[in-house]
Known about the structure:
The structure is a single chain. With 217 residues, this protein is an alpha/beta fold. The chain has one domain (55-215): Rossmann fold. 34% of the residues lie in helices and 28% in strands. It contains six helices and nine strands; from the N terminus they run βββαβββαβαβαβαα. The protein has helices spanning 37-49, 108-121, 142-151, 162-172, 190-200, 202-215, and strands at 9-13, 16-23, 26-30, 56-64, 74-82, 104-105, 127-134, 155-159, 176-184. It has a five-stranded mixed β-barrel, surrounded by five helices. The radius of gyration is 17 Å and the shape is globular. The mean pLDDT is 96. Bound molecules: adenine. Residues 61-63, 138-140, 158-160, 183-184, 186, 190, 194 line the site of adenine. The site of adenine has 14 residues, from strand 4, strand 8, strand 9 and helix 5.
Amino acid sequence: MLALMPGERRVQAAGREFWCGRLHGQEVVAVLSRIGKVAAATTAAVLAERFGVSGIVFTGVAGGLGPGVRVGDVVVADSFLQHDLDASPIFPRYEVPLYGTSRFHTDPALTGRLQAAARAALPAAALHRGLVASGDRFVSSTAEARALQAALPHALAVEMEGAAVAQVCHDFGLPFAAVRTISDRADDEAHGDFSRFVREVASRHSAAIVQALLAGA
Ligand code: ADE
C-alpha cells in the first residue's frame, strides 16, 4: 500500500507508525491496527483525535463462520458484535455495558462504496455482507468454531478487531466500513490456512480494494 503513496510522511504516535500521504488525490492516513480489540481501539482513537480523520476503512483477514463463507471469499461487514463480551447477569450476554446494544452498524453509504470497490478489485471472489464477530481469540479449532456458529448463527466471519473500531467510531461520530478476505475457516486447519493466506495474498487483496475505493470516489 505504501508503494502507492509516493512522498508519504511517517508520524509516530502511541508506539505506532502512521503514514500520511495522498492516494488517488485524496488525503489518507495508513496504519496497521495491530492485533486484538484494545490495540485496534487505540489505533482508531489516535486516528480520530490526533489525525482528525473523517472516516475509517478497515481491511484485513477473518475466519469464515457462515456456512457458505470459504477461504478467498470477501466479507463486507454491515455490523459488528464482540463474541467474548459477557457482563451477564448485569447486562444481557454480548451487550456493551452502558451502550444499550450488542451491535454497532457500519456506515451504509461508505459500506456500499466499499462493497462496490471489493467487487471491482476481486471480481472472481464470492462476496457476502452481514454480521462479523470480534473477540480476543484466534479461533483455531473446529469445536470452538461450531460453538460460535451455534451461539451466533448469523455471524459470517470472526476476527479480532472490527467491533472495537466500530465502537470507537460510534463514540467519535465517524463513518466506518470494514472488509475482510477469508483466510481460514476458524477450524482445526485455521493456523496453517491463515499463515499461508497472510503470507501469499492478504496484503495484495487489501491494497487492491483500497485502490478501487479511492479510484471510484
Ligand atoms: N483472523 C483470521 N482468521 C481468524 C480466526 N480464525 N480467528 C480470529 N481472527 C482471525
